Amino acid sequence: MPHLRPNWEWSVFSAAAFNFGPRVIAYPHRDCMNLAYGLCAIHAFGRYDHTKGGHLVLKEAKLIIQFPPGALILVPSATITHGNTPIQEGEVRSSFTQYSAGAMFRYVDSGFKTQEVLRLTDPAGFEKMAHAKADRWKLGLELLSTVDEILDRAGVGREEGEVPE
Fold first, then answer.
1. Which tens digit of pLDDT belongs to each residue from 56-88?
2. At the N or C end, where does the chain have fewer CB atoms within 10 A?
3. Mind listing the domains of the chain with CATH numbers?
């Protein structure tokens, strides 16, 4: 679709949201409309003491992360419950997120048609696409790097005893 343009020249995401303060708080949620195996970029901005508030909470990972102004994190926002803690009185926090909707990928997988149009115009193609969905989670896992792949890129090896199993 050559008429489509990216939001920004170097962004890989199809959508973005500005959350202007003055005290942006994201209650625990999952972005179920985002690509299930995709990542969401979360940028924090403002004037707040990140040691006292504005922490990023990743529920299933059981992590609470200090998230200072200017920080960026990539999270699989469709599959992990995330949110942030309140900031202190008088402080300011806003955020900017970038993400990609799962519907865009389904549209491409359906031959640049909605699934309903594919079902009506190409029943065999619809069946093939529907069967492929059952294993889509495997594709998502294959896109992730293993610890060993990350260590290889960093030039660090487990055999050197630098990183525990």
1. 999 999 999 999 999 999 999 999 999 999 999
2. C
3. 15-99 (2.60.120.10), 102-159 (no CATH)
Report angle CA 64, 68, 71 to the nearest 5 degrees: 95
- Buried b / exposed e over 46-58, threshold 16 CB at 10 Å, is bebebeebbbbbb
Can you tell me the distance from the alpha carbon of 112 to that of 105, in angstroms, rounded to the nearest whole number?
9
The rounded distance, in Å, linking the Cα atoms of 10 and 5 is 11
The pTM of the full predicted model, rounded to 2 decimals, is 0.80
Copy the structure tokens of residue 146. 């293993």
Give the three-state DSSP class for 108: helix
As a dihedral over the C-alpha atoms of residue 107, residue 113, residue 119, residue 122, rounded to 10 degrees, the angle is -120
Quick check: bond before 22 cis, omega within 30?
Answer: yes
* DSSP notation for 14-35: SEEEEE--SB----SB--TTB-
Which residue bears the tokens 């992590």?
63
| Per-residue pLDDT at 1 | 62
